[in-house]
Structure of Aminotransferase-like plant mobile domain-containing protein:
Amino acid sequence: MGFGEIFRIERMRVDPALTQALRSRWDAEASAFAFPWGHMIPSLEDVSRITGLRVYGRAVRGYTYPCYQYLAEHLLDLPVERRSSLVPRVALQESLGLCEAGKNAGESEDEYLARLARVSRRELASEPGPQADLDLRCFLVLFLCRLLFATRGDVVHCLFLPLLEDLGEVGGYAWGATFLAHQFDGLSTSERQTSTSGFYPFLQVWAYVHLPALGRGDLTRPGLMPIARRWDSLRDTRHLVDQLERLQEAIDSYPYLDVVWQPYLGEGDEGQPWLAQARPYFGRSVWLHALNLVLPLNLFLTQRSLGLRQTVVEFPIENGERKGKTVKSDVTTDDAYLQAYALKYGGKVYKSARHQVDVTGEIASLRALLQSAQSELVRVRCTGAASASSSRSAGGSPSLLEARLAGAVLRAEEAQRHLEEQERDLQLTTEHAMELQGERDRFRVEA
C-alpha cells in the first residue's frame, strides 16, 4: 500500500524547540520558510527520501463531511455518535487486540514494537476475509489519522475513511504529496504551538540535513533507508524557553555557506525503489491535495535547491494552473532576488531578541536605500518628462521608452512606500523588544 518504508522508521524523540523555531519562520503567503538567507521549502524529494512515502499516483481529492456515522458502522463496524467525524481511539485499539498490549517492564522500544506487530499479524491471520478487511481498515484509520495526519486530542477522525472502502485502491494514492500539504497546513497555524500535527520526525530530519550546523540531530544509524531511520534528536535538558532562544539566535546568525540546499547529491537510489517513479516530480512546482485542502508547492521560490540561481519572484504569488511546472532559471546570480527579498521581509526574518534589539544599523541601511530610491525616482521622472516632451514636439505617439519609464516610476514609488513601512516596523519592533528585555531582566533580578 506504499506505507512499508515509514513503518520501518524507529521511534524518535520529539524536539519541540526546533519545531517551534521553524514554525515561527513559516510564511503562509509564500508557503515557505523565510530565513535570513532566503526562502526554503520542504519538497516532494524531501518527503520521498526522508519517509519513503510515495509522492506519485492519484491525488487524494475529495470532500469532508460533518458526519461519518454510516461509513464508520459500515466499513469499521464501530459506533460513531450522530453528526460526528470522530472514532474513540480505545475502540479502534480494542478492535485490533491492542488495548491490553502495554509495554512490559524492561522491554526495549524495538522489542515492544516487534511484539505489537506479532499481535497484529496473529489477529489478522485468525480472522476470516470480511473481518480481516474490517481490521485492516481500522488499522489504516488509526495509522493515517493518529500518526500520519494526526490532530490534537485523543480521538481519531474519519476524514480519509471514504478512500478506504476499496482496499485495493489505497496503494494507488499519492499519500506523500498529501502528507506535505498537511505539514504546510499545520505550519500555518499559531506560532505558539510547540508541536506540529502529524508525523513529527519529518520536519526534524529535514532540519538535520538542510541546516546541520544547528546541531540538533544525532546520526546514529548511517546508511539506512529511508533517511529518517538514520537519525535521532539529541537530548537537551535545558528549559524549553532557553532552548528556543538559543535556536533562534543560531538561525539568525547561521552561516549562509553552511546551508545545504542539495543534501541528497551524494545519495544513490540503492535500497529506494520508489524513487524511480517519484523522480519526475522532484523539480516541479505543483499543487498538493489533501481532500478539499489544496496548497501550492512553490518550488520556484527555492531554485537553489535544484542547483540553479534564484530569480526574483513577485508578490503576491499568482499561480492559477494546477498542473505541474518544471522550475527553470537563466540568471547567473542571486543578487536581484536577495535585494527583493530584503525589501519584502526586512528585519522580520530575525526572531531572536538580540537581533531584534540591535537593528540600528539596519534602519540606517534602509534610510540609505530610501534616499537612493528617491533619487532614482526624481531622475526617472525628469527623463520621462523630457522624453514625453520630445515625442509631443515631433508629433509622434508615446514611445515604448515612455511606457517603460512609467513602469519604472511606479516601481520606484512602490519601493519608497515599502521602505518607509519597513523602517516604521523596525522601530516598533525595537521598542517592543527593548521593553520585553527590560521585563525579563527585572524578573531575573527578582528571582
In short: The beta strands are 26-27, 32-35, 38-40, 86-88, 155-157, 217-219, 231-233, 284-290, 293-297, 325-326.
